[in-house]
Amino acid sequence: MSPAPKILVTGGAGYIGSHTVLALNEAGYRVVVYDNLSSGHPEAVLPPAKLLAGDLGDSAKLDSLLAEEQFSAIIHFAASIVVPESISHPLHYYHNNTIKTTGLIQAALKHQIRHFIFSSTAAVYGSPEHLPVSENAPLNPINPYGRSKLMSEWILRDATQAYPYFRHVILRYFNVAGADPRGRIGQSTPEATHLIKAACRTVLGRKEKLEIFGTDYPTPDGTGIRDYIHVTDLAKAHVLALEHLAADSDSDIFNCGYGHGYSVREIIAAVQKISGLPLQTHTSPRRTGDPAQLVADPEKLRRTFNWKPQFDDIEKIVKSAYQWEKQRPY
Question: Does residue 230 sit in helix, strand or coil?
Fold first, then answer.
């Protein structure tokens, strides 16, 4: 009996990466996580997955790892992801997200790793004219974060065209939220900017108030609307993407969301309902680079992968996030 496929997960000690590692563990894959731990947490990498601390910019260390291990696929999460920070420090985002991704693709090709799954974002669409957004919608990112990810998508697609044995899946995430329903892992970074996490920390008294950035958007209550996907359902999509490539399917792109959105005020109401606690807010002007609405059309993901999300319910998402925050020591 041949051993289970071995997967390299870059950024696997981070929020989405660690949940995907957990899903890979449970699906029987052998997993090695490569993470510089700048925002990841070693304790989030649950056994039997193995953690190797290292940066994608360390080409010698990366090359040595790929030479020693026989990886069948790479799942690439490692990236900087905060939109306002990308506007203030664009060169950091292009270096960390685009240049390092290029180096990883080069290394994968050198060692003939055939399958590559890329963590992309709905930010590549910018402010879409039509909702929900399908994969063939115009690509017009409005911030360096989105542009850095779109450039990486282009590089990956060009590499696939040049090397026929090399195939990829690009997953464009909408707003990821929640935590492992069994409470094993969650969003562990205290200063993370995710709305649901920040709202949970506020009702628990760990933040003084929750900032609402913009109340004059062309939406029913004036606040931004996003499509929130539970991190466990998103992690499952990565496992299905591996199976898709292992079946010799073509390279492809998939939106990862549920197909409906919630406003900032609706999220606040859900957090207050689940917690039974009041939440202090403060309104601020819109942030540069934030679209009014982003809602996915996930039909292609559901149809192609037979993806059946288990947590498509905002109260389930909020409850898992709130329970995780309650047990945190900070």
Answer: strand
- Residues taking part in catalysis: 145
Quick: pLDDT tens for 69-123.
999 999 999 999 998 899 999 999 999 999 999 999 999 999 999 999 999 999 9
Helix (H, G, I), strand (E, B) or coil at 43: helix
pLDDT in tens, 48-69: 999 999 999 999 999 999 999 9
Residues 6 or more apart whose CB falls under 8 angstroms from that of 115 comprise 72, 73, 74, 167, 168, 242, 245, 246
Answer yes or no: are the C-beta atoms of 254 and 237 closer than 8 Å.
yes
**Domains of the chain, each with CATH number or no CATH:** 6-177+227-256 (3.40.50.720), 195-226+259-298+311-326 (3.90.25.10)
CA torsion, ordered 18, 116, 193, 225, to nearest 10 deg:
-120
